[in-house]
Design goal:
The chain is an all-alpha fold. It is built from ten helices and two strands, in the order ααααααββαααα.
Length: 282
């Protein structure tokens, strides 16, 4: 019971912080993605580079800084955060990181320098790029509320998958990676996520006026699909590295990576979908 209460409280704080920062936007949103990025990158490089030697600690810091530069780069162009030339400076620094990071390995005495740099670039691609892509939501009218809808769809997809899977789940989805996931649970997640699209569109027509009901339902379907894949990708990473949780920063939940694993695939996929829908069908 104590663990359930702890899990509920930490989850409520997590949801409240995200909802507040996304709706307010501006520097609050920048602070949110920066915090998520720093914690997630630290967890990922901590897992992939363990055990740490002196050289690996230095490379870990460099990789976290490189990832953070990419995350912040597009955020400085969202409404309320415009800083002249800052985005160009950050892009220059990120390109400099990409160029110099392999050079660092030339002077490394590690037994597997190629593995180190592979994890470095993977961390940037897997964590930093998706978090950076969320900034493009603010290019839409009421972009903060649209981004919030994406988060709610992820949470409802996870909730629907858990509830339906635990009650009637029989057919395993991909047991070699995640033995607990079932096809019934996946379908439950789709129903919950697509169902929320009806609520957003019909309940708040003024806020989501830029997108039709079919487009919003398509977003719900896409979120459920990529949220499931995102969860499975992180499960694959943890199985490969031989760990149960990515960290312990969130009591009852594990690490930040364990909480945003779905987001890391949903965010870029949803942006591609919404931009395509906006320019092709609106």
């Amino acid at each position: 019971m104590n663990n359930l209460v702890t899990r509920a409280l930490s989850g409520a704080v997590y949801v409240a912080l995200i909802c507040g920062a996304v709706i307010v936007g501006g520097w609050c949103f920048v602070a949110l993605v920066s915090l998520l990025g720093a914690l997630a990158l630290n967890e990922f490089f901590g897992l992939s580079n363990a055990p740490h030697g002196g050289e690996r600690r230095v490379s870990k810091i460099v990789d976290i800084v490189g990832g953070m530069i990419l995350i912040i780069c597009p955020t400085v162009n969202i409404p309320g955060c415009a800083v002249p030339n800052l985005s160009a400076i950050l892009l220059f620094l990120f390109l400099l990181y990409l160029l110099l990071r392999p050079v660092m390995q030339i002077y490394s005495r590690e037994k597997s320098p190629l593995t180190n740099i592979a994890y470095a670039y993977m961390g940037v691609l897997y964590i930093a790029m998706p978090l950076a892509s969320m900034s493009f939501y603010y290019s839409f009218v009421n972009g903060g509320y649209l981004l919030l809808a994406m988060f709610v769809m992820i949470w409802l997809s996870d909730t629907g998958a858990y509830l339906v899977g635990s009650m009637i789940g029989r057919h395993k989805l991909i047991p070699r990676i995640s033995p607990g996931k079932t096809w019934e649970g996946f379908i439950g997640g789709v129903v919950f996520s697509v169902g929320s699209a009806f609520i957003f569109k019909l309940g708040f027509p003024g806020i989501y006026s830029d997108f039709s009901l079919p487009v919003m339902c398509g977003l719900g379907l896409l979120v459920a699909l990529f949220a499931t894949w995102g969860d499975l990708v992180e499960s694959l990473i943890k199985r490969t590295l031989g760990v149960k949780d990515s960290g312990s920063i969130m009591p009852g939940h594990g690490g930040i990576l364990d909480r945003i694993d779905s987001l890391l695939l949903v965010a870029p996929a949803s942006i591609i979908y919404l931009l395509t829908a906006y320019f092709c069908f609106m």
